[in-house]
Amino acid sequence: MALTVKFLTRRFISEYDPNLEDTYSSEETVDHQPVHLRVMDTADLDTPRNCERYLNWAHAFLVVYSVDSRQSFEGSSSYLELLALHAKETQRSFPALLLGNKLDMAQYR
What we know:
This protein is α+β, with helices and mostly antiparallel strands. It has 3 helices and 4 strands. It is globular and about 40 Å long.
């Protein structure tokens, strides 16, 4: 949630509940064209099970892991594998990005 809020509003929130899911909307300009952006910030899931509705809803995916948690990084591969399988099964192509977050916490790895 903090990353989504920072991206859409340019402000940082220090306290948030990672177990909450929410959808955010924003009007952005891309190549001088207005774009309506909707971002679903999913709950902090331990495993990628039961992600079907997310897979069918989205046109792009951002898989975020915490740079201070090896478990978080290793868990992100499960999501990337799920995305690859979904793309193959549905014959859809979509952008997917792996993002390391909390760079300021890197010294705690």
